[in-house]
């Protein structure tokens, strides 16, 4: 919906480097098999089911991709808990970690 209202909006898909199924499918332009390792980022773990809308919608919406390490996810979870008092799942922490290093470019993108 956001990209329909403002097509210039950048949407970054972010995954743990241990669980790259959707990332690899997007890079390949089709659904491919991908080895999945244990990850603290449960929300991004697992393969892509060809009978769902996930892959097609992701192709339409995601404009950039990023991988973060398990250590970066854990560090982000810890920092969010310490600074904001929130306990977040690893998938959210991976996005926060990716964006925290890009704050200047995000602020200047208006």
Automatic annotation (TrEMBL):
GO terms for biological process: isoleucine biosynthetic process; L-serine catabolic process; L-threonine catabolic process. Its cofactor is pyridoxal 5'-phosphate. GO terms for molecular function: L-serine ammonia-lyase activity; threonine deaminase activity. Transmembrane segments: none annotated. Pfam families: PALP (PF00291). Keywords: Lyase, Pyridoxal phosphate. Residues 2-91 form the Tryptophan synthase beta chain-like PALP domain. This is Pyridoxal-5'-phosphate-dependent protein beta subunit.
